[in-house]
Amino acid sequence: xxxxxxxxxxxxxxxxxxxxxxxxxxxxxxxxxxxxxxxxxxxxxxxxxxxxxxxxxxxxxxxxxxxxxxxxxxxxxxxxxxxxxxxxxxxxxxxxxxxxxxxxxxxxxxxxxxxxxxxxxxxxxxxxxxxxxxxxxxxxxxxxxxxxxxxxxxxxxxxxxxxxxxxxxxxxxxxxxxxxxxxxxxxxxxxxxxxxxxxxxxxxxxxxxxxxxxxxxxxxxxxxxxxxxxxxxxxxxxxxxxxxxxxxxxxxxxxxxxxxxxxxxxxxxxxxxxxxxxxxxxxxxxxxxxxxxxxxxxxxxxxxxxxxxxxxxxxxxxxxxxxxxxxxxxxxxxxxxxxxxxxxxxxxxxxxxxxxxxxxxxxxxxxxxxxxxxxxxxxxxx
Length: 382
Prior knowledge:
Radius of gyration: 24 Å
Number of strands: 19
Strand content: 15-25%
Helix content: 25-40%
Structural class: alpha/beta
Oligomer: single chain
């Protein structure tokens, strides 16, 4: 017997038309460049399979993850398009990647040899892209490693155990001058790679921020994450201003209602006390589900019956409380509660939370917990 709920209390509704629209918008901005859609961290909290399918349908050239396990899970889920991943533990066995046709972002000589060994063992040809560091100082081959790494890649390609398909790096987003300096480093690396006898098919440096603001950094491929999901990578420009549509609507429902007199304390610690008689609504979502406890007392709000209402009292692991006093006669058990979504539809923007917490919208959506049901929706075709 299957144990579960036929009516989930916590739902992240994911608009497939929105993701497809966002991919078309990204392709428009980049004049038809190759688009690599990043679906790491469970598709930035949206559901990796859901996001990958919609992105490919919207025109993505390739899907990308950080970890190999994420990439393999997509294959197991039926995603057949090209997949790239680039962050690995020291003891990673690349055999599964070779078997599944997953492209490996190689950051150093040890990884290159490990991928080649896995391909040799299977009598197969592995596909790799060179991941280089141009100034971010994270993973990626350092400049002093490039010449030897590229030469060895050319040898292994000639042997037939590897195909080097591309080369890429990550921007620090530290300003235009710094971005251009990183691009100059990538240009130098591409020249060295070609001198070694490899002409890369894909060259990518721009992520979401540079894709929309720095066309000179597009090369022939961009690698985008947060904009796939309709969110802005900037503090000074909204999704709508970029022509993007937020794909996630995070919602729950009212499961209890109670009228209380003035002076009633609310939730742990009574850090909120009702100043007047009101009605309190219980919503079954908490910090285990991605509703950050740091929002306590911050002025955060949700919409109930289309009206903004404040979150009051401390947020619990499983639930929080909303003061719905003025709406008492218009709502009932089961009335939907929208935590965030597309502000063009009247929903709170996720940036309200990230602004109150002094963080970025990426962190909020990626932190939506596993109890929240991801519901793929075809509603609202764009």
